């Protein structure tokens, strides 16, 4: 990480690292603590409203908590200032301004900057030394932007991050006529250290002009290439066909799919208790709909016995389960993605309630790039193939032997046949739906709650 280099080269530097969410800030802190020369000079500054029970012991030791470790507190200005690196969420950094640390930091790094609203992003700028301070925005404009509920805020373009706005409109940060950035202002990182090359292949082609180079630790990304779950050894992707029926409850426009819930639980059991022995904390389950998340959580508690888990010293709560938004900036050894949808005629309703998923390129990109060693997709390929990006992923998995279930008619992987099917199922409104989903920028219905971290 760049701030490692700053701290090594300039021992007098004062570095503030911010992220939109607590998870991302905690992950940064853990990486910092792995560097011995920084172990005693890191402060994880948390909002006092955060529960200590949500913080690991490792991070709690360097947090602003009481000696008992039972609650968080506002530390003295001197206690904050003595640390070379302070890590905080963007919103919590406002309390550092209240502590009169204005102009204190020589460097400000904002991680996942493409996910933050512009007002959030400018909060910690007051803490940067205006004479010699340096600001670095790190993020991916091809992944999720800010999550907003207010149509007024969206109409005034608060749905665009500062990172994306600068890269789209500001001279030094925009690509030149040759499609290149000025390397004095923009550095495009082309090495990807997360995923197995086969997992990275499709998003690399669709979103990054095939410029990404898979550089993940070979032992880690190849760990499950011989798993008994794989239809084809050596290819760590599975598409499991489920022709389930999506359902809704009266109180919510969100969807769930019972048959997909069953398959998710089957895979979790095989991963944890099978020969692969994957630890629960290494498993992530992504669903685009909050009702599916709730159904899966309930099924995990009902179908996996505490006695069996106790034998391996684990608990189902250690499995990370949530929406695509929750997984922005997140990663797991294994990702199970349940797509839920089985009826394209309901896409119009998704747009009405701003919970569209299958035709949201940025959500698609985030969802399929969270896995390090194994990606399992559960869904209906007939529906998913109506989208060109999903079709590319399914074609990749089918052609490499990772497909499970009833065969997909060959014509469904053909562009012209898919266009006819799309028109039959959704009519002319399908393009309008895509545009509306993009304009909404994934604004969530009140049922699909996304809590902004402080």
From TrEMBL:
<feature type="domain" description="DNA2/NAM7 helicase-like C-terminal">
    <location>
        <begin position="159"/>
        <end position="380"/>
    </location>
</feature>
<dbReference type="GO" id="GO:0031047">
    <property type="term" value="P:regulatory ncRNA-mediated gene silencing"/>
</dbReference>
<dbReference type="Pfam" id="PF13086">
    <property type="entry name" value="AAA_11"/>
</dbReference>
<dbReference type="GO" id="GO:0005524">
    <property type="term" value="F:ATP binding"/>
</dbReference>
<keyword id="KW-0943">RNA-mediated gene silencing</keyword>
<keyword id="KW-0067">ATP-binding</keyword>
<keyword id="KW-0694">RNA-binding</keyword>
<keyword id="KW-0547">Nucleotide-binding</keyword>
<comment type="similarity">
    <text>Belongs to the DNA2/NAM7 helicase family. SDE3 subfamily.</text>
</comment>
<dbReference type="InterPro" id="IPR041677">
    <property type="entry name" value="DNA2/NAM7_AAA_11"/>
</dbReference>
<keyword id="KW-0963">Cytoplasm</keyword>
<dbReference type="InterPro" id="IPR027417">
    <property type="entry name" value="P-loop_NTPase"/>
</dbReference>
<dbReference type="Pfam" id="PF13087">
    <property type="entry name" value="AAA_12"/>
</dbReference>
<dbReference type="GO" id="GO:0016787">
    <property type="term" value="F:hydrolase activity"/>
</dbReference>
<dbReference type="GO" id="GO:0003723">
    <property type="term" value="F:RNA binding"/>
</dbReference>
<feature type="domain" description="DNA2/NAM7 helicase helicase">
    <location>
        <begin position="80"/>
        <end position="150"/>
    </location>
</feature>
<dbReference type="InterPro" id="IPR041679">
    <property type="entry name" value="DNA2/NAM7-like_C"/>
</dbReference>
<keyword id="KW-0378">Hydrolase</keyword>
<protein>
    <recommendedName>
        <fullName>RNA helicase</fullName>
        <ecNumber>3.6.4.13</ecNumber>
    </recommendedName>
</protein>
<dbReference type="InterPro" id="IPR047187">
    <property type="entry name" value="SF1_C_Upf1"/>
</dbReference>
<dbReference type="GO" id="GO:0036464">
    <property type="term" value="C:cytoplasmic ribonucleoprotein granule"/>
</dbReference>
<keyword id="KW-0347">Helicase</keyword>
<dbReference type="GO" id="GO:0003724">
    <property type="term" value="F:RNA helicase activity"/>
</dbReference>
């Amino acid at each position: 990480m760049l701030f490692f280099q700053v701290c090594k080269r300039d021992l007098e530097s004062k570095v503030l690292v911010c992220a939109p969410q607590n998870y991302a800030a905690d992950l940064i802190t853990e990486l910092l603590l792995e560097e011995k020369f920084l172990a005693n000079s890191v402060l994880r500054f948390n909002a006092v409203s955060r529960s200590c029970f949500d913080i690991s012991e490792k991070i709690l030791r360097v947090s602003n908590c009481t000696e008992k470790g039972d609650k968080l507190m506002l530390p003295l200005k001197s206690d904050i200032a003595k640390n070379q690196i302070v890590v905080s969420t963007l919103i919590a950094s406002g309390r550092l301004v209240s502590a009169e640390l204005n102009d204190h930091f020589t460097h400000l790094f904002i991680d996942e900057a493409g996910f933050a609203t512009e007002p959030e992003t400018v909060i910690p700028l007051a803490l940067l030394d205006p004479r010699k301070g340096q600001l670095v925005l790190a993020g991916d404009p091809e992944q999720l932007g800010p999550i907003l509920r207010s149509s007024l805020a969206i109409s005034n373009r608060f749905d665009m991050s500062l990172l994306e706005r600068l890269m789209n409109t500001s001279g030094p940060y925009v690509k030149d006529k040759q499609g290149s950035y000025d390397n004095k202002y923009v550095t495009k990182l082309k090495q990807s250290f997360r995923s197995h090359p086969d997992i990275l292949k499709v998003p690399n082609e669709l979103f990054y002009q095939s410029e990404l180079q898979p550089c993940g630790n070979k032992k880690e990304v190849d760990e499950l290439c011989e798993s008994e779950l794989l239809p084809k050894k050596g290819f760590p992707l599975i598409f499991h066909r489920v022709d389930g029926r999506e359902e809704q409850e009266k109180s919510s426009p969100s969807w769930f799919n019972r048959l997909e819930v069953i398959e998710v639980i089957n895979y979790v059991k095989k991963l944890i208790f099978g020969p692969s022995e994957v630890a629960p904390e290494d498993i992530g389950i992504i669903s685009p709909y909050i009702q599916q998340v709730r159904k899966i959580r309930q099924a995990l508690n009902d179908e996996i016995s505490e006695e069996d888990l106790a034998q391996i010293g684990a608990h189902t709560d250690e499995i990370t389960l949530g929406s695509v938004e929750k997984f922005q900036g997140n990663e797991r050894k294994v990702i199970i993605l349940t797509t839920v949808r089985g009826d394209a005629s309901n896409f119009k309703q998704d747009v009405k309630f701003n919970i569209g998923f299958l035709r949201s390129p940025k959500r698609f990109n985030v969802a399929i790039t969270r896995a390090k060693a194994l990606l399992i997709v559960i869904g209906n390929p007939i529906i998913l193939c109506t989208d060109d990006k999903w079709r590319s992923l399914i074609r990749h998995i089918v052609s490499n032997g990772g497909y499970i279930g009833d065969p997909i008619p060959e014509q469904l992987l053909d562009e012209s046949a898919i266009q006819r099917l799309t028109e039959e199922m959704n009519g002319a409104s399908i393009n309008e739906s895509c545009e509306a989903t993009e304009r909404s920028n994934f604004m969530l219905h009140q049922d699909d709650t996304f809590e902004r971290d402080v």
